[in-house]
Design goal:
11 helices, 2 domains, 48% helix, alpha/beta, N-(1-d-carboxylethyl)-l-norvaline Dehydrogenase, domain 2, Rossmann fold, 282 residues, eight-stranded mixed beta sheet
Length: 282
């Protein structure tokens, strides 16, 4: 595998592009929004520079990595990639349309992967004529630092596709964990309901946000509490995942907390907006 396509120049897409460039791959980054598309190369270059400062990447390799990045507006630029990784917003219909478009554009042997954190890979594969070559590659934020990838096998994902993604994970310096296609996979099936329960605990006045998080940091040895983590993930993303779990598993234990819905409706989405369960100085 030599060339990776990445769809979406948000935090996850830029992170995926950076680790792929650092691993020697050429990357075509697709972003339809002009402002985000224009910011992406500098943001990725800053990430590569941090590796130079840490001594994990030479200046020569940094320059070579940056030169392997190209940025485009539409998925038509991905016709020659070996694998395309979709990192678009967590919306089913958007992703279904993207996979149909990718199927029409990408070469026949290209693998189509999704960075979705909860949506069915089987459903995305069904939007294509190559369901055996559709797979989940769920990276974790921040991508350059987090060592895990969930490799999600849809019902029709082939053994060859799975093996290629295990090899890609190794090349990217990540540890792969293979999971079967189920709402939320492993990480978010467990993590997101925990965050939701923390929000219920806050809503009911059991403790303050800071004290809830302190219990998890000092009592469970978590690096950050569930509410601070929700702010980092993005409260809109947390809500989207909960809605997928609630809808697809059909169990009211996954119903999103009213306070979470209110914060999202108010535009308090966490760190990216400067306000979530905590306030952040921009």
């Amino acid at each position: 595998m030599n060339t990776l396509g990445v769809i979406g120049a948000g935090t996850m897409g830029r992170g995926i592009a950076q680790v792929a460039l650092g691993a020697g791959l050429s990357v075509v980054l697709v972003e339809p929004v002009a402002a985000a598309r224009e910011r992406a190369p500098n943001s990725i270059a800053a990430g590569l520079e941090k590796w130079v400062e840490k001594g994990t990447l030479s200046p020569k390799d940094r320059d070579a990595a940056a030169a392997r990045l190209s940025v485009a507006e539409t998925v038509s630029a991905l016709k020659g990639v070996d694998c395309a990784v979709e990192a678009a917003p967590e919306e089913l219909e958007l992703k279904v349309r993207l996979f149909a478009d990718l199927d029409a554009v990408c070469k026949p042997d290209a693998i189509l992967a999704s960075n979705t954190s909860s949506i069915s890979i089987t459903r995305l594969g069904a939007a294509t004529q190559r369901p055996g070559q559709v797979v989940g590659l769920h990276f974790f934020n921040p991508v350059p630092l987090m060592p895990l990838i969930e490799i999600v096998r849809g019902l029709r994902t082939s053994d060859a596709t799975h093996a290629a993604m295990v090899a890609l994970a190794g090349r990217l310096g990540k540890t792969p964990v293979t999971v079967n296609d189920a709402p939320g996979f492993v990480a978010n099936r467990i993590l997101i309901p925990m965050i939701n329960e923390a929000v219920f605990t806050l809503q009911e006045g059991v403790a303050s946000a800071a004290d809830i998080d302190t219990v998890f940091k000092l009592g469970m040895n978590h690096p950050m509490g569930p509410l601070a983590l929700a702010d980092m993930i993005g409260l809109d993303i947390v809500l989207n995942i909960l809605e997928v779990l609630h809808r697809d598993l059909g169990d009211d234990k996954y119903r999103p907390c009213t306070l979470l819905r209110q914060y999202v409706a108010a535009g308090w989405l966490g760190r990216k907006t400067g306000r979530g369960f905590y306030s952040y100085d921009k």
